[in-house]
Amino acid sequence: MKNIIKILPIVLCSLLMAAHLGRANIFVLQFISLLIPFILIWKNKIAASAVQIFLIIYGFEWIRMIIYYARIRTANGEDWLRLAIILGIVALLNFATVLVFRSNSMKERYGLK
Questions:
Q1: CA distance to 34, 55, 110, per residue, from 17 (Å)
Q2: How far is it, in rounded angstroms, from Cα 34 to Cα 51?
Q3: From the CA atom positions of the chain, what is the Rg in Å?
Q4: Rounded distance, CA 6 to CA 103, Å?
Q5: Which residues, at least 6 apart from 91, have a Cβ–Cβ distance to it below 8 Å?
Q6: pLDDT confidence of residue 1
Q7: Average predicted confidence (pLDDT) for the chain
Q8: First to last CA, the chain
Q9: HSE of 70 in the Cβ direction (CA atoms, 13 Å)?
Q10: What confidence tens digit (pLDDT) does each residue in 49-76 have?
Q11: In 3D, which of 66, 58, 52, 62 has the Cα closest to residue 99?
C-alpha cells in the first residue's frame, strides 16, 4: 500500500506529459507517456531505471518549453515570468519524483539496494 502512494507522483507526471503531448498532437509519444507507470509492474532494476530516465526526460522537456514559450512571449511583448514559474515548478516536480526511488520500500521492491 505504501508503494502505491509513492507511485502516484509518477502517474501524475506521466499524465501531465501526456496532456502536453496531446496538445502538441504527438499522439504516439502521448500513448507511450501514458504507459510509463505500467512499467513499474515489473519488479526489477531495469523497470525502475527506465521510469527514472523518462522522468528526467520529462523534466528537460518542461525546461525546453519554458525557453520556447518565453521566447515567443518576449517577441510579442508579453509577460513570461508567470509562465516560467509554473512550468519551472512542473519541471522540478518531475526531477523530484525521481527521488521516490530512494525510499527504502521502493529500493527493496525494485532491488535497488
A1: 8, 10, 24
A2: 12
A3: 16
A4: 9
A5: 59, 60, 62, 63, 66
A6: 64
A7: 95
A8: 20
A9: 14
A10: 999 999 999 999 999 999 999 999 999 9
A11: 52
